[in-house]
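SEVERITY: medium
COMPONENT: batch folding queue
REPORTER: lab tech (J.R.)

DESCRIPTION
The queue accepted two submissions in a row. Attaching both inputs and their returned C-alpha cells so the on-call engineer can compare them side by side.

ATTACHMENT 1
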Amino acid sequence: MFENRHDPNPAFLNGFQGFCSVFVTAAFAYTGTELTGLAAAETIDPKKEIPRASKQVAWRIGIFYVVNLLLVGLIVPADSPLYSGEGSESRRSPFVIAIQLAGIKVLPSIFNAVILIAVMSVANSCTFGSTRTLQALAANGMFPKVMAYIDKKGRPIPVVILQLLFGLLAFINLAENGGTVFDWLLSLSGLTILFVYGGIALAHIRFRKAWAAHGHTLDELPYKASFGVWGSWVCFIICALALIAQFYVALYPVGGPNLDASTFFQLYLAGPLLIFLYAIWKVYSWFFEHEHSPLFIRSKDIDIYTGMREQQQHISGPGVSAEQRRAAIAEIQEETEKKSVGTYIKDAIRSII
C-alpha cells in the first residue's frame, strides 16, 4: 500500500503548470458544500440546524474527501492510466481502480453501485440549488417573471423543467467527442464555483461591515462564522489566486499548445462569460431596474432588514429599543452558557456520524 511513497515521479506532476491545472477540478469536486447556506431560507429553525449542518460539512470533507484521496494516492500509482484519461475515457472511479489494484474482485462492482446512488443524490442537490436560485432571481426581477411561479405545494415548476432540460446535456458524454464537450462543461462549471465561493466570502465581509454600520453587534447574531471576517478574506484571496492560476494555465496549458485561442476559452470560458453577463445586467438595470444599477453600495446604505426572520427582528429589528436588545442578547448568552462539555461532545459525535 505504501509503495507509492517512493514513486520516482516528482511531487507535482508537470511542475508548476500541473499544480495550477487542478484548481478547477478541485473546485468542481467541492461544489455543493455551499448548499447549507441556501437551505437556511427553507429551514424551520436555522438558528439550530445551520450550525449543525456546517459542522457536518467540515467533518465530511475531512473524512470523505481528504482521507479518501490520501488512501487513493497511496494505492494508485501516479503513472496509472487513470490520470491520462479524459472525459468519457475515464469510465472508472479512482476508488474502483484502487480496489482492483488491491486484488479485491467483488468490491469494485459494489462500489460502482454506491457511486451511482451517490450521483443520484448529487442530481437531487443540483436540482434543489439551481431551481431555488433561478426562482429567487426571477422573483427579484433578475430573470424572466414566468420563472418565479410557484404552485400551491411550493414547487417552482417552470424552473424545474428548465433545469431538467439542461440536465439532458449529460447524454452528450456518450458521443465520440463527449470527452471534449465534458472538458468545456467542466471548465464552465468548475471555474464558476470559484466566483460563487468568492462572492459568498465578499458578501459576508460586506454584511459584517453593514451590520456594524447600522449599530449592531455580533452578540445579536445566533450564529457566527467560526473564523469570522478573516476567514472570508482568506477564502476570497484563495479564490482570486485560483482564478489567476487557471488564467496562466489557459495561456500555457500542460502539453501545449501555448497561447492558443481555442485552448484558452476551453479552460477559461466562465471568466469572460460571467463578466459579459454582469455587464449586460448592469446596462439593463440602468434603464429598467434602477434599484440594481449602482456598481457599489456603501455599508450604511445596505438593506440588512428585508427578509430577516421574525425571531431575529425581535432582537435586531429597526424598531427594537436598546433595552430590549440587551435583554435578548443576555438570553442568547445564557442559552450558550447552559451547554455543558458533554453537549459539545455529543454534537461533535453526531456531526461525524
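ATTACHMENT 2
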Amino acid sequence: MALENASSPSLSPPTLFAHLITIASPSTIKHAISNTAIKIKNIALDDPRRVTHSLKVALAITLVSMVYYLQPIYNGIGDAGMWAILTVVVVFEYTVGATLSKGMNRGFATLLAGALGVGAEAFGSLFGPTIKPIVLGFLVFFLVGAGTFSRFIPSIKKKYDYGVLIFILTFSLVAVSGYRVDKIIQLAHERLSTIIVGGLTCIIISICVFPVWAGEDLHKNMVKNLEKLASFLEGFGNEYYRVSDGDKSFLTAYRSVLDSKATEESLANFAWWEIGHGKFRFRHPWKQYLKIGVYTRQCAYHIEALSGYLHAKDEIPSEFQKIIQEPCIKMSSETGKALKELANSMNLMVHPLSSSIHIENCKKAVDDLNTTYKVSMVEDQWDILENISVIAATSILVDIIKCVEQISEAIEELSKQAHFKKPKDKTSNEAGKPHILHRGAVKPVGVENEQELVTVTVSSGDEVLHEART
C-alpha cells in the first residue's frame, strides 16, 4: 500500500498551487481565448450560412417569446405558450427540408394524438369512474405499443419517425393528464395552437430568410464528388508513369466520396419535403440522385484500390509498362474527362452529350490495350508474375470505365426525368453566320527580286466579291 502511494503521480500542495497559477496566468488565458476565436472564425468562414442559421433561430425564439411577454396574448394562452418555445427549439433545423419535415410531422402528430386523447377520455367515461382507469390504461398500452412498433417499419422510419415519437408523447400526456383535468378539450386546444404557432414561425423564417435548401446542397454535393473522381483519373496516368510532377492534392480528394452515403440519403429525404425552388421543380426526382451516388461510390472504391498501386509501383518501369503506357494514360485521362463533362452537365442542368465521346475513346483505348497486350505476350514472352501489379492496375482501370458508363446512364435518366435543357448546337449557330473572306498576299515560289503583278478575284455567279492586286 505504501509502495502504491509512493509511485502515484500526485502533486504536492506547493506544486499544485504553482500549476494552477500557470494555468490561470493572463498569457495562458489570452492564448486560449485567441485560439478559440480563430476556431470560431474558421467555422464561420467555412460556411457563412451557419452564422445566418444561428441568427434565424434566435429571431424565431424571440418572436415566439412574445407569447409570454405580451400580456394580452398570455391571458388567452397562459402557460401553454411554453410549448411554442419548445417547438421552435426542436423543430428549427439547418435546411428548409429538415424544418418542414419536423414541423409537418409535429403538427399532424399533435393534431391526431390530441384528437385520440380526447376521444379516449370520452370513451373511458362511458364505463364509469371505476372501470375508466382500466380502459384508459389499455388504450395507452395499445396505441403506444403500436406506435413504437411502427417506428421499425422502414418507410415510416425514413420520413415519419419524428412524427410517431411526438404522437406517442402527446397522446400519453393528453390521455393521462386529462384524467385529472376537467377541461380536457381546452387543454388539447391550447397545446395544439401553441405548437402550430411555433411550427409556422420556424417554417416561415426558414423559407423567407436566407433559405438553405437541402435539394440544392445535394445537387452541389453530387457535382463536387464527380469532379473529385475526375481530377484523380485525369492525373493518375501521368502520376503512375511519372510523366509530370506537380500538385498531388487530387490523389486524396476522392476519399470523402467513400463516406458520402449517409449525407446523401439525409439530404435526399429532406429535399423530398421541400417546395419548388430555383432550378428545381416540385417533386424533383431526388431518388435518382441516390442512384447516381451509389455508382459514384462504386467508382470511388475502385479508385481507392487503384491508388494503392501508386505506392507499390517499381522505381524503374518495366518494358511491359512502357509498351502499355500510352493506352493506359489515354484510358485514365478520357475517363476523367468523361466524369468532368458529366459533372458540368449536372451543374448546368443540361443533357450530357459530349461525355459519350470520351467514353467511346475509353473503349477504343481498351481495344488498343488488348491488342498491344496480346501481341507483346506472343512476341516478347513477358513473365506474367513479374508484371502482375501492372496487369491488376490496368484491370481496375477497365472496371472504372464500366462504372463511369453506369454513371453516365444514370445522369442521362436524371436529365430526362428533371427535364434538363438541351445544350446549344454550335453547328447551327455557325451555319447562320456569314462567311468572312480574308485578304492575303500570294508570293510566287522561287522569285526573290523580280516583282510580278498577281491578281486574285473571288466571284459568286456574276458578282465580284473581292479583288486584290499586288
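NOTES FROM REPORTER
Confidence is low (pLDDT under 50) at residues 1-9, 426-470.
No errors were logged for either attachment.
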